[in-house]
Amino acid sequence: MYISIQSLVSEFSKWVWGIPLLILLIGGGLFLFVYSGLVPFRYMRHAVEVLRGKYDKHDSPGDLSHYEALSSAIAATVGMGNISGVAIAIATGGPGAVFWMWVSAFVGMATKFFTCSLSVMYRGKDEEGNIKGGPMYVITEGLGKQWKPLAVFFAFAGLFGTLPAFQANQLTQTLVDVFQVHETNMETAKLLLGISIAIITALVIFGGIKRIGSVAGKLVPVMVVVYLVTVLTILVLKIDKVPSIFSLIFTDAFTGNAVVGGALGTLIITGVRRAAFSNEAGLGTAPMMHGTAKTKEPIREGLVAMLGPAIDTLLVCTLTALAILASGIWKGFDGNGISLTLEAFNTVLPANIGSVILTICVLIFAFSTLFTYSFYGYSCLSYLFGSKVGKYYNYIYIVTIVIASIIKLDFVINVIDSAYALMAIPTVLSTLILAPKVKKAANNYFKRLKEGAF
Asked: Structure pTM?
């Protein structure tokens, strides 16, 4: 029965990630990119100033500062998708998939600007009076109550898309690989590790959104710096191969010859799927976090949010891809996901230093994502059934961590990919319809900024 379910989920994932969804995500993002007047590039400096707290006001509505909101959102996106997801993209789509991840990231910056501006513009409240954000509130508050079925559709899909399955699975796989657990003890080791991971996660997520934001704010800078220094060291050691790697990425992007036998459409979809898994632009998760930011200016939060795909995909994912390609291990490697990245690090760095550093990075990356994703699922369940029922989501979340630690990677990826695709449909549709509202608010905001009103 399990095999039948696995096959069914796999087929559904392939079907839902077809050309129509590709057009919606990339085409919709490209439209928003142009329609925004190239905001992601014109106001990057101002976005950094907002992030640094220059415009923070403690009496503004919301729970998190701009920095904590972005840190929490990045904690969710700069995670296993950047280490394991990139490896999966290269293993299944070849080096050319990296190019399409870049394309997706550029348009994703505009998508996040619009979706996260809307998440503050159309915030909702639960029955306890707490401020809530996300596509479900954008749809009902911005489009009207008659659109509520679309909001419910998003929230139901979000219950599955925000499960911690991928993170728990790959974190467990990393630890058994590093400690070289024998095949006969594999299942028991994974189960015990899953239970341990669940306990650590529970200590943070039961403290609520403010504790999650506080922990994420401390973890994110450390994890990004440590990881970047390690990957840059690998690239310095393999500096002679870097120019040819970039050439390979660009040429393979339009041929797909490296892995998928010239199937360009499959290559593009692979790149977009893995970029979506990595930076989550257009999926609707980040707006749930940014919607809780302490601000009265929706555009300001949109500007901060658009930094996410730049940090996540254009920087971290690119460096991961370059490290894997520079190692040369990706050619004919009999494995996938974190195992490929781990082997790439060990191939270049001496005396298993790669394993040690990558394990530390994976621990921080995975746990930061595990902490943040619980809030997304809680938000979806709270919207559907109220905050009293929503509080029980964390118990489901913890149990899922244990289960995901022992099941197969392919099944986990297909489940999450399918849910992401379903989440993207209401998120992007509602954003495209409400885009003129953001455009009007942006023109007003930047006019006041030039006049020195802030």
From this structure: 0.81
